[in-house]
Amino acid sequence: MKFKQGVIVDDIEETISEYGSAILRKVKGGNYQVLPVNRVYIPKDSRGKCVLGIPVVRDRIVQQMILNILDPYIAPHFSDHSYGFRKGRNAHDAIHQVEAYTNEGVCICREL
Predict the structure, then answer these.
(1) Cα R_g (the chain), whole angstroms
(2) How far apart are CA 59 and CA 111, in angstroms?
(3) Second label for 91, Cα 20 to 30 Å away, from 5, 17, 19, 57?
């Protein structure tokens, strides 16, 4: 089975209806093969460029499927103070929490 190349997010419903069962069979069978990520070079200030890897749409869907299955089991074991890549949390939430701690007078300092 050959998957279509160049699928974009807007085509996802059509792609899932056409290939969804086959993708799931491959994942369950342990023979799903990810495609190479698309490398995009993002300019940095004066230090050159940063490489960003963007997975193809079908690989991103498989990643999300796996996360949806595993998250209920692993999320309860994360620290309440963890904000990175957590469902329902983001960098702004972390900043607000730091501001709240600061307003409460909480200071975690160590001597150098």
Answers:
(1) 20
(2) 46
(3) 57
- Nearest to 1, CA basis, from 20, 62, 36: 20
**Contact call for residues 83 and 90 (beta carbons, < 8 A):** yes
How many whole angstroms separate alpha carbon 12 and alpha carbon 30?
A: 23
Measure the CA–CA gap between 27 and 20, rounded to whole angstroms. Answer: 11
Cβ-proximal residues to 1 (8 Å cutoff; 6+ apart), any chain: 19, 22
Return d(Cα 62, Cα 67) in angstroms, integer.
Answer: 9
What are the tens digits of pLDDT across the range 35-56?
Answer: 999 999 988 877 788 899 988 8
pTM summary value: 0.65
Q: Cβ neighbours of residue 71 under 8 Å, at least 6 residues apart?
A: 87
Domain borders along the chain are 9-77
- Reported as half-sphere exposure (CB side, CA atoms, 13 A), residue 74 has a value of 10
Q: What is the pLDDT of residue 48?
A: 85
